[in-house]
Amino acid sequence: MHSHGQHNHPYGSTHHADSGLRALFAAFLINLVFLIAEVIGGIISGSMALLADAGHMLSDVVALGIAVWVARAMKRPPSSRRSYGYGRLEVLSGFVNGLILWGIVIFIAVEAVRRLMTPQHVEAGVMLPIAVAGLVANVASAALLFRGRREDLNMRQAFLHLSADAAGSIGAILASLALLYGIGMWVDTAASLLIGALIAWSSWGMVKDSGHILLEGTPVGVDLEDIRRTLESLPGIEDVHDLHAWSIGSGEPIMTAHLVPADGYTLDEILQQSHETLRTRYNIQHTTFQVESGPCPELHP
């Protein structure tokens, strides 16, 4: 026979404060207004850099809209149908947003090559003030999300979108200044390629981290071998096997393990010290232990 011990916690996203949701919504509105301004300005000026930055801002508006929806959905408690709650929504949105950003990078690269082959006139006088306004919007929005960027993947992906877009706005400003001083039309195209590179760089980490969670990889910062050694050093535990750790969402590690008990210790003693050790030393709140009733014929890593 086997005995199970579980330290139960809600798997919902209680760490998502209302203030974070308000910050996301405010950033969404700011970027929506300036997206419209950049598209109009890019068409009037003929600037590829400005249109590239508008394309990235479009992804920001979509990303922030999704982030607002995810933040609201994650406040819902677990149910019989969604026993883990909605924490994985932030991971899915981060992964999808990263792929959308890569699509925008491809579009920018193709359009930049076309512009190099067939240069077009750019109205730098129209481009400059709109690029400056876009930078202000990006910085203001990123500042709203700065404090919460480390809380979860949802806030992080929104912050990364805005930070990369701020860099893109700087590129558009520099390109417009170069055009005003007659340096050359190629500067606008070069700026758009730089923006595309920044988008690809900023999105890579988000896709990698969200993909790792979707594949149920070991959470970042969790050392399973160290945990194994710690558990095996506790009184009453002779061996630990079938040790696994994964995440539902960012910041929500879950761990399971089989424990082989030593003689002279009760089930309650073994479970209590195991749960308490992982909670206090590793900050893992969600744990499930199976205590073997006898020697296991085959130990698994």
Architecture overview:
The protein is of the alpha+beta class and about 300 residues long. It folds into two domains: about 20-215, Alpha-lytic protease prodomain-like (Up-down Bundle); about 220-290, Cation efflux protein, cytoplasmic domain (Alpha-Beta Plaits), CATH 3.30.70.1350. Helix content is about 60%, strand content about 10%. The chain has helices spanning about 20-45, 50-75, 90-115, 125-145, 155-180, 185-215, 225-230, 265-280, and strands at about 1-5, 235-245, 255-260, 285-290. The protein has a four-stranded mixed beta sheet, covered by helices on one side. The longest helix is centred in the middle third of the chain and has 30 residues, at about 90-115. Mean pLDDT is about 75; it is low at about 1-15.
